[in-house]
Fold:
Amino acid sequence: MSEQQQFDVIVIGAGPAGYHAAIRAAQLGMKTACIDAALGKDGKPALGGTCLRVGCIPSKALLDSSRQFWNLQHLFGEHGISAKDAKIDVGTMIGRKDKIVKQFTGGIAMLFKANKVTPYYGFGTLHPGNIVKVKQHDGSEIELKGTNVILAAGSDSIELPFAKFDNEYIVDNVGALDFTAVPKHLGVIGAGVIGLELGSVWKRLGSEVTILEALPDFLAAADAEVAKTAAKEFKKQGLDIRLGAKVSKCEVKKKEVHVTYTDSEGEKTIVVDKLLVSVGRRAASKGLLADGTGVKLDQRGVIEVDEHCHTGVDGVWAVGDCVRGPMLAHKGFEEGIAVAELIAGLPGHVNYGTIPWVIYTEPEIAWVGKTEQELKADGTPYKTGSFPFAAIGRAVAMGEPAGFVKVIAHAETDRVLGLHLVGVGVSELVHEGVLTMEFSGSADDLARICHAHPTLSEAIHDAAMAVDKRAIHKAN
Ligand SMILES: Cc1cc2nc3c(=O)[nH]c(=O)nc-3n(C[C@H](O)[C@H](O)[C@H](O)COP(=O)(O)OP(=O)(O)OC[C@H]3O[C@@H](n4cnc5c(N)ncnc54)[C@H](O)[C@@H]3O)c2cc1C
Structure:
């Protein structure tokens, strides 16, 4: 073992949370190391975590490719553009995705160099006294000591005991981002964000897609009206979403997966050629902590932290998917930055009430703040204003009239409590709500902001006006 290296900050994990923490710490003048164990498809170390390698970015690359193909077949006709016999070359599509992934994972390595973050490639374990031992890919071990250690180990797919990943027939997100051909019939367990996004990719390319969801409600975390509209649109696209369907058995027989589930009508079996299991993710805390560190894990392996991401052990922090809160890259970004700033004595802070959620399906789904269901449950008085994209000139001109915007404001103060959107481009529009809520703005503030015409953002303007029943383009 080589001599122990000393750092002001050691970050374990170079995903969104970890690389933000490392770069910000280095910017603030701290001697920083960042350790990551991941390898890319080429077998070489790849920074950027789940997000850049097998999550946010590759899924969006495939969503974009598949959307082009779908539009070519379903939307172009009404523009007078014919594309007879359109074909998809899956190898080219996956190659494009891999190129984008490589560009971004390589980009993190460059950012580390530019900011003087020292990368270590291997598996890191925290030992008592803020010592981190790194088992490098060549088998050697090095020892680092940090005044501060930030745990940013991220998350892994949850595996079901009766549907073990074999990476050929039963896959997780990694497999479903790398199919070499369009599956004839793709089964998906779990109608959450990942199941819906990856199910959409392969549906648009021609798969029959059946999504089995154990819960009785569709997208329970979203506003109920948004979820209802989205479900209707997904049905039109041919996504077969079966609710209240509890899967109990999955068997691979003759290159097919037999998936048995029970719903209100009894036991049923579907036969698919690929099965994506997307039932959630769990904190990747296995092997991260040696005995005696004092860092606590809950029953699900989530690292326990306070509101400042501090573990309660002197100098040990944790951020991103491996701690409580939504498993979203941008939540990790903010926690990583906040912790680096807190270590430097600055007032680092994350406003968990204004973290936006986005599902990149067609239509897109996005929201920030509270839903009507939540406000009803906690007894907050509220008022709402909605506006449909079908009455927005830009959306109709784009051939994308589905969906609506809903502004929720406090009934007495008019302060915006939530913005809920379903429709084209809402992944970008939701930030009007984030900004308004960050500045404690009201529905009236939103209604008085001049929005360019014709844009999709006019739906927010009209929805804000509708809160006080003064929308111009619809009967109030
Ligand atoms: C298919 C898919 C699509 C997604 N799409 C979106 C999206 O559109 N928007 C969004 O906000 N979120 C999305 N997510 C979620 C997002 O990817 C995660 O929330 C985010 O990556 C979490 O960041 P993180 O830094 O906490 O962890 P991770 O990104 O998981 O990174 C953790 C890193 O730490 C490394 N590591 C773990 N333990 C150790 C150890 N002991 N030693 C060394 N290295 C270690 C891992 O190898 C990994 O590289 C998606 C996820 C998936 C799977």
Summary: The mean pLDDT is 97.
